[in-house]
């Protein structure tokens, strides 16, 4: 039955005025919704689908994304449902075997593995958390039809589940509606890049014999590439790039015979497939919108950038887009900051996605070499390079996305120059999850402290200065909250040498008895560090200088 079109309400006469309207309830949109709910932002989230995805789609949740979920207070829900893999193994037809071992990041993160979890499960967890913790429902079967930007925000025509057209109004609209974004098409936003002319078949099937390990396994030959990724209930994702089938029409459906034939053609070891749950095909592309913000409309996730699936980076990038933008939106809406802060979303996230697009494009070209001479040369070079321990560590950091940071952002460079600090965390650097003792919590961690969704100010006193530091800390907190609201959580940091009884009741303290704040953050006696709500360094100073801190924070938040 088609949509019954009823008379549209007039522009400007909406169902409700919201702060934010999220289009798309996949992993990115649902992450955005959970984050905005944490901050008490009034929002609506809609999706034209009837519910969460039934298909596995993206399978890998990387370490940095798990750290984000930790800061959101929900990482255990993901760990309980996923499988832990150590990385990727690549086997070539000439006998060469390469590995990317994610466990090389052990010591840098609490999550030194790849969590194998179907996207359908990721979406369920996020939707359940939104409903159970925040009592907020996704409006399923609601389709975006038109958008208009106004001086006050955005107006959107939305068809609800019975086909009625309604006008929803919001101050901001976030496009999280995927690679075929309706928002992008309605606004004619450029999606720059190209199609890689590589057709990919995939299927979620049972295989015989089953894989011995839980790692992603790739087999490459001059005939094509077969990738195998075990996930849940004895099912394995099979991805096939068959050079003999690159002239298939994009509308031709994939059959089990097609997939089985390609496996036999490319892979040297026999594998039988059965019981298909999902069969599909696509043509690999790499594209990106030139801007992430168009007045009061933002793009995130696949609506902003797409690339081939090598490395499983896409969903993770999108989730981190949402985390980056959400706290900035909350401050712009609720805390008297200029909207220029929102421009830093593009400035920080666009370069990271662009680098991933370049890297995955290069990897696909390397993996799909057809010339036998180049094939052998690639294998020789790759075999030599990946055997080096430091290279393995760098590969693991890249795959896990721990390497991503904002240190080269314009604001970060200006702050770092002004702070004049040779040691310690630079502005924009990822903040690791150090452990320590806090007032009232004998064993605490930075990511647990960040679950409040606030800036965290760490002021490390030295002998004889606690009283003055407490006065300065409380004065800074008062000024910050007068300007931005209750968006900062300050701590006096001490060590064994400093008596806790000197800290007044009501002032939160951290005892860095293990020295992790000193080692991980460079937070020495007589210095301070401001951590952003998304787990990156905002400002680090080798001296306890609240005047300079106020000046630089105002400059950053009021750009």
From TrEMBL:
Residues in the signal sequence: none
Single annotated GO MF: FAD binding
Domain FAD-binding positions: 19-360
Chain coiled-coil ranges: none
Entry cofactors: FAD
Keywords in alphabetical order: FAD, Flavoprotein
Native organism: Falsibacillus albus
Lineage: superkingdom: Bacteria
Designated name of the protein: FAD-binding domain-containing protein
């Amino acid at each position: 039955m088609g949509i019954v079109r009823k008379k549209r309400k007039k522009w400007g006469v909406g169902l409700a005025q919201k702060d934010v309207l999220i289009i798309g309830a996949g992993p990115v949109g649902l992450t955005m919704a959970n984050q905005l709910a944490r901050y008490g932002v009034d929002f609506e989230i809609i999706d034209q689908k009837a519910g969460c995805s039934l298909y596995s789609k993206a399978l890998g949740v990387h370490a940095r994304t798990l750290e984000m979920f930790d800061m959101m207070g929900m990482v255990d829900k993901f760990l309980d449902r996923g499988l832990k893999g150590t990385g990727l193994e690549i086997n070539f037809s000439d006998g060469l075997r390469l590995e990317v071992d994610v466990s090389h990041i052990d010591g840098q993160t609490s999550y030194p593995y790849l969590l194998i979890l179907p996207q359908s499960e990721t979406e369920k967890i996020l939707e359940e958390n939104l409903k159970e913790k925040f009592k907020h429902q996704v409006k399923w079967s609601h389709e975006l039809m038109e958008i208009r930007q106004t001086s006050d925000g955005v107006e959107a025509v939305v068809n609800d589940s019975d086909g009625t057209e309604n006008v929803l109004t919001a101050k901001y609209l976030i496009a999280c509606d995927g690679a075929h974004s309706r928002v992008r098409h309605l606004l004619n936003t450029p999606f720059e890049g190209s199609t890689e002319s590589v057709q990919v078949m995939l299927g979620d099937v049972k295989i015989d014999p089953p894989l011995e390990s839980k790692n992603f396994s790739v087999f490459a030959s001059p005939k094509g590439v077969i990738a195998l990724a075990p996930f849940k209930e004895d099912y394995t994702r099979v991805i096939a790039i068959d050079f003999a089938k690159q002239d298939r029409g994009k509308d031709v459906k994939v059959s089990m015979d097609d997939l089985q034939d390609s496996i036999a053609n490319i892979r040297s070891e026999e594998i039988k497939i059965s019981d298909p749950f999902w069969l599909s095909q696509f043509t690999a592309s790499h594209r990106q919108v030139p801007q992430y913000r168009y007045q009061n409309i933002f793009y995130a996730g696949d609506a902003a950038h797409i690339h081939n699936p090598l490395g499983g980076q896409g969903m993770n990038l999108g989730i981190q887009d949402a985390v980056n933008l959400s706290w900035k939106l909350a401050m712009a809406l609720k805390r008297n900051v200029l909207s220029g802060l929102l421009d830093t979303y593009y400035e920080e996230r666009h370069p990271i996605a662009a680098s991933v697009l370049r890297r995955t494009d290069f990897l696909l070209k390397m993996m799909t070499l057809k010339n036998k001479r180049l094939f052998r040369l690639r294998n020789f070079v790759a075999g030599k390079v990946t055997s080096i321990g430091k290279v393995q560590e760098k590969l693991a950091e890249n795959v896990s996305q721990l390497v991503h940071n904002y240190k080269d952002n314009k604001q970060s460079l200006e702050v770092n120059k002004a702070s004049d600090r040779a040691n310690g965390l630079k502005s924009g650097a990822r903040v690791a999850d150090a452990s320590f003792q806090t007032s009232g919590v004998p064993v605490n961690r930075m990511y647990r402290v960040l679950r409040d969704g606030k800036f965290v100010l760490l002021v490390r006193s030295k002998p004889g200065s606690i009283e003055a530091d407490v006065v300065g800390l409380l004065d800074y907190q008062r000024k910050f909250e007068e300007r931005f609201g209750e968006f900062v959580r300050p701590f006096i940091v001490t060590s064994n040498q400093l008596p806790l009884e000197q800290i007044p009741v009501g002032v939160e303290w951290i005892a860095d008895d293990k020295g992790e704040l000193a080692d991980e953050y460079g937070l020495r006696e007589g210095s301070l560090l401001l951590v952003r709500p998304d787990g990156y360094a905002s400002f680090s100073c080798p001296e306890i200088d609240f005047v300079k801190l106020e000046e630089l924070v105002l400059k950053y938040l009021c750009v």
